[in-house]
Amino acid sequence: MSCGGNHDVECQQILDRVHWFIDNELESADAAQIQQHLEECGPCLDEVTLDRLVKVLISRSCKESAPVELRQRIVFTIRQVHIELSQPQLETD
User: Fold this and answer.
1) Which CATH number goes with the domain that contains 68?
2) 4 lies in a domain?
3) Contact 36/11 with Cβ under 8 angstroms?
4) Total domain count, the chain
């Protein structure tokens, strides 16, 4: 992606690191470089805003828990598979 603007760092280089930026996992110099780019580049800022929204929505949906019946069925199925795998296999000729 390129917005057509003249930046110190290309848009694609910024967008390649945006997930680490959103999660505050970059060195302060790198984060400052991205922040400066976002202040100058509307399309990249829009992309970051969208990525942040997606992250919030995913986080919110991960807080929901599965119904008890579903969890019980999954545990039962895992146990069945475990039992089947632990039994010796009969060889057929």
Assistant:
1) 1.10.10
2) no
3) no
4) 1
